[in-house]
User: What shape does this take?
Amino acid sequence: ETLDKGLEKSKTSFFSKLSKAVAGKSKVDDEVLDELEEVLVSSDVGVKTTIKIIERIEGRVAKDKYLGTEELNQILREEIANLLSETNVGEAVDFEIPQGKKPYVLMVVGVNGVGKTTTIGKLAHQFKNKGLNVVLGAADTFRAAAIDQLQVWADRVDVPIVKQAMGSDPASVAFDTLQSGVNQNADVIIIDTAGRLHNKVNLMNELTKVKRVMQKVVEDAPHDVLLVLDGSTGQNAFEQAKQFTAATEVNSLAVTKLDGTAKGGVVIGISDQFQIPVKYIGVGEGIEDLQVFNKYEFVDSFFK
Ligand code: GDP
Assistant: This one.
């Protein structure tokens, strides 16, 4: 239900554009495909992924000789679901700490404003509700506001937070947090990091150092590097994914603010293009508005 509401704008916009594209047409021809291409690109599916989808539909048109425009919805739904399956992303799995990985260290990256702090707060809430001990680390030390905001979430969720003064070394905060987490017998440690994309080399150096220092406490940390992207920023989100994946190994994605955008197609494009699973989607500002991403539910909700 939250998902349906969260995707409402994207869906309405997509289908109104789609119905304009096929208005007065009974069969899927080149003109309809051109229009469809535009609809997909304008929904931020991304050019490469759009081309893949169009090629698949062209393939079906060629095979079936005739495809009515009223079947287009169903075919799109199938092809998008296939595409997402092939990228092997987004099978919703409830979080469990893998064997021998306690404390589980989750490092969160992303630029300021994308919803990184909010996502960390929502995650901490989910983990805590599962009965897990959570500790937060404020290693995004560049802005005082980032530390304060994380503190606000720590208070709201009622979990401990480790922080230092603004401007302190992110690696040092991460180190302290892991030590504190180990001492407190934490199950999950969430480290907030790098909120700015200064330049690629600096970003890489900073993240590499944070990782190296964390490994002094927990040998195989981080167990997961989660990149947070603002789903309403379209091509910026693609660009940020490009830069962060170049700077560090990113294992999973959280795409936020899908409730505020008509461009939810970004989820399809980003997971396809970067071959990184979208694990979470943000569909509102509230503490409960973070969902474990499930591609089947996503496609269903979109084409329902
Ligand atoms: P950060 O700078 O990346 O840490 O960003 P914040 O977590 O402070 O979030 C920036 C703004 O985006 C805040 O006003 C959040 O309430 C809002 N926000 C975060 N996630 C979502 C979401 O999924 N939906 C909506 N509508 N707003 C969100």
Summary: The pocket of guanosine-5'-diphosphate is lined by residues 110, 112-118, 149, 256-257, 259-260, 282-285, 289 (CB under 6 Å). The longest helix spans residues 47-64. The beta strands are 104-109, 134-138, 161-162, 188-192, 224-230, 252-256, 278-282, 290-292. The mean pLDDT is 90.
